[in-house]
Write a structure and sequence with these properties.
Length: 181
């Protein structure tokens, strides 16, 4: 079976892969299951399938927090650069390059073909897929079988686990998300 056959088989679920195999199938894949986005990843003999909606508020907060951090890094680099001796060429060049990093961060658009859900509402995983710890490749039919098993085994994620605590803590530190109680 290939991806197109898998889509036809599960048309009732609204399964659609992003066009062109974006994400390097079979190692990873993006697409839709119904109205939700999915992200599939296979690495080190482990596979996972994450499914969830496009959360525009969360996406915007992540973009703003990234911009905050980049501005902070740039300011820090400029201060360090001003304190370095003129003859410290290597460190001066490194700081000049790193302080010129871009500051703006564009949030992902809901129609971005490589969008993966940032709020996970359903999840499935499987360990020891091939028995090889560093397996990194699946044949197309192996990928389709594994993807189908994971898709049919999706389980709901509780509301308080849909966004990683690291992410909400990082956003809260920038004043962009409510602090955890």
């Amino acid at each position: 079976m290939d991806r197109a056959a898998l889509e036809r088989k599960h048309v009732d679920l609204g399964l659609r892969f992003s066009p062109g195999g974006l994400g390097g199938v079979p190692a990873q894949a993006y697409g839709w299951i119904g109205e939700d986005r999915f992200y599939f990843r296979f690495r080190h003999d482990c596979a996972q399938l994450s499914v969830g909606p496009v959360d525009a508020e969360l996406d915007m907060a992540i973009a703003l927090r990234t911009t905050q951090q980049n501005v902070g890094h740039r300011e820090r680099d400029q201060i360090q650069l001003s304190t370095l001796p003129e003859d410290d060429i290597d460190d001066r060049l490194w700081l000049m390059m790193s302080s010129s990093r871009p500051v703006g961060e564009r949030p992902q658009a809901a129609d971005d073909l490589q969008y993966y859900p940032n709020r996970i509402t359903r999840y499935a995983s499987r360990q020891d897929v091939t028995g090889e710890q560093y397996a990194g490749f699946l044949e197309e039919d192996e990928f389709c079988d594994l993807f189908e098993q994971l898709m049919l085994g999706l389980a709901p994620v509780t509301a308080d686990e849909q966004i990683p605590k690291f992410t909400t803590g990082w956003l809260a530190a920038g004043g962009l998300w409510p602090a955890a109680a």
